[in-house]
Structure to design on (110 residues):
């Protein structure tokens, strides 16, 4: 059924020693396209709870470690939705930059 095909984006962070081979094999099997550093897009025929289905498939294909992260993104009608299916959110590397720029401008009299 072609009408049950949905597009997904998968963002991954497996660190330096992650199981990239397992992840890349899974992405290749699903004919994923590269979208930049650590981001892929693929289409999948969906049935039932597709988030649980994709999570289960990945857990069977990839040896995840404690700090690995996978974020799945999809469209639901007109809304974009996303969820960590492995790991979770961590502090952003850019956190604190805006306040330090503001403070520097205030100190210089700008």
């Amino acid at each position: 059924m072609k009408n049950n095909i949905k597009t997904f984006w998968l963002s991954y962070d497996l660190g330096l020693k992650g199981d990239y081979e397992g992840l890349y094999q899974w992405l290749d099997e699903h004919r994923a396209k590269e979208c930049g550093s650590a981001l892929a897009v693929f289409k999948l025929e969906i049935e039932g709870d597709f988030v649980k289905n994709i999570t289960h498939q990945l857990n069977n294909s990839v040896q995840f470690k404690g700090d690995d992260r996978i974020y799945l993104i999809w469209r639901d009608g007109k809304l974009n939705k996303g969820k960590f299916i492995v790991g979770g959110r961590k502090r952003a590397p850019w956190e604190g930059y805006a306040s330090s720029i503001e403070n520097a401008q205030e100190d210089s009299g700008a």
